[in-house]
Every structure is written in structure tokens, then in C-alpha cells.
């Protein structure tokens, strides 16, 4: 069976798989045709410490890579097909998957990506830390009685996670712990890298829709997981139809990243066109991209030797979906 591996969002700051609407149980029970694995990874200071004397800074993203390796090596024991692993993330989770696709171009593990409201092209000022002096980490260390030196890491390792979390929450000034461009896991030149890697891509500057509630950030997740009724009360028949349409398309993509969506009537991405899921009149239809505020197509010069071309991708923003070919 194809395998969909889910990575949550929440801005690399918080979150986890225990959220009510991240439960794929009803989805899997309905289809009986795929496996969904939800993954926890370290976030905030635990996942992205940006400490002066620490070799690895992007621990949360490395957690995700390790999880994918575990799935590849073990999912066959659960009836899964390791050659049909799809990495699916939302917001920060989607950004991290995109990071991984570039960090491990020759061995991404996953054969397809589903990126909900996030790519490596999200503004770096929002997704990365530029604390080159490592002052955020040092301030938390000092608050817990650890001196600012090479020993601060060892000292902090002796503190409980509860004390560290409390120190972050109670810091006298705003501290943030986000991914760092280390040019190994996270890079600073994604535009250049993607220009030589992807045949086409979609650019969507309006990550957060301007109207509320409308298609607000993460609005699609309860529909995708089949938990909308638990999340906001009883669903309408139309909501159920949209939910099942979403789910079935995701499974078809997981089964066959090349032709699954095409066989379902979802045409590959082409300039000037997009797919609307959850419109006012039908669960799925083709639109002119000019009908979508802030969206336009961007074509890049491909390097046909790049292994990035082998990763098929679904990009979701708000209530519309763009599929690069």
C-alpha cells in the first residue's frame, strides 16, 4: 500500500501529532488502501537551538529525515510499499519537506511531496533565525544558571525540559528558535537551486488569505483528515463530499505520482490554469489562474540531470491547488 507521512506545521515553534484534527483513522478506515503515518519532531529551542558550540542546529528537520528513513526501512512490515512514500506537510511542515528535497536530492526517500501552504520560498525573515551571535540560546542558558561558554550546552543538558520550556516562555525579551541556513540541511539560495532543478513551479505570495474565515490557514486539514465533524460540529453533505474528494485525490497521488491524478481527471499543472477544490458549486474544477488573487505561474529553466525532477509535487494554498508537472 502507498504510504503518506504527515508533518505538522505551527511555525517550527510548537505543535504535535496529538491535535484533534490530525487523526487519520476515519480516512484510512474508509479507503482501506493506504497507510498514514504522523510524525512528531522537535521544535523551538529543542529542535532549532542555534547554540554557539553545537555542531548540528537544525535538529527538528533531521528528526524528520530520520523518521522518513525509519518508514522506508520498516513500513513493509505494516503492509506499506517503501517505493511509494509521500511526504505531506502543512505550513512549517511543508517548508521542512521542501528543505529536505534539496538537502537530499539523490536520496529523498519520498517519491512525491504534498505541500500545504508552505515551500522553501517562504520569506526567510519568517522561517529562519538570523541570530548570528547566538544570544537567544545564551539568554536561556543564563536564565537557568549556565555560564556563556563551551560548557553551557552540557550544563543545559542537565536541566529538565520543563525548566527549559519555562525559561523560554518567561524570557524578559522575545526569543525565537528557528531553522538556520547551514548550507547542508537549510540553504540560503533556494531560487537558484530550484531554477536548475524543477521544470515548472507555482508561485503564490499570498500564503494567508485576506478574508476570514474563508479559506483560512490550515482550513483544509480537518477535511483532509476526515475530522471536520469533530473539529467544528456536524458537517454538511457537501463538506463530506469535498472531504472525500480531497482524500481520494491524495491517495491516488500516493499510489501513482505520475498518472494517478491525471487518471482521476486532474490535469497536470499548466501555465494559466489551477484546480479549485471546495468551490461554491462543485468540489473540483479547473480555473484560470487570473481568477485567483495573488497567484501566477513562474517557469524556470530546468536542468534535466537534476534528480529533483523525479519528485512530483502537489502545492496547496488556501482553497486552491497548483500541481507542477
From TrEMBL:
Under the heading Pfam families, the entry gives: COesterase (PF00135)
- Ranges for domain Carboxylesterase type B come to 2-186
The record, for SUPFAM superfamilies, names:
alpha/beta-Hydrolases
Task: Name the domain of life.
Answer: Eukaryota
* InterPro entries in alphabetical order: AB_hydrolase_fold, CarbesteraseB, Type-B_Carboxylest/Lipase
Q: What is the name of this protein? A: Carboxylesterase type B domain-containing protein
- According to its UniProt entry, this protein's organism is Monilinia fructigena
